[in-house]
Design a protein that fits this description.
It is a single chain. The chain has 93 residues and is an alpha+beta fold. The protein has a domain of 63 residues. It is 35% helix and 25% strand. The chain has 2 helices and 4 strands; from the N terminus they run ααββββ. The chain has a 4-stranded antiparallel sheet with strand order 1-2-3-4, covered by helices on one side. Strand 2 and strand 3 form a beta hairpin. The model has no long low-confidence stretch (mean pLDDT 85).
């Protein structure tokens, strides 16, 4: 009986792990992207609320400086793990 109970518990844990893996978020944390870029530029950065974490995805963010300047920033996702590259498109320092 104990062996059957252990097998059932193991099966439930494996099924739960698979479910978590398959339903994990596939979106990039654009808030963290905005924060990272903003810290580097010394500006407040706004990015779209949802963007895919899939390699090749690209989108634009906007940086707002205290002196009133606004610049566009191109962001490109480089890997499905969420690694990205960004560059200022216009009006940078």
């Amino acid at each position: 009986m104990a062996l059957i109970s252990a097998a059932v518990i193991a099966l439930v844990l494996v099924a739960g792990g698979i479910t978590v893996w398959l339903t994990r978020p596939h979106d990039l944390d654009t808030g963290a992207v905005a924060s990272t870029i903003g810290n580097r530029l010394g500006a407040t950065v706004r990015c779209p609320a949802r963007e895919s974490r899939t390699a090749g995805t690209s989108f634009q963010c906007t940086a707002h400086y205290a002196d009133g300047r606004t610049v566009r920033i191109a962001v490109t996702v480089r890997s499905d793990a969420g690694e990205y590259h960004w560059q200022v498109l216009s009006g940078g320092r």
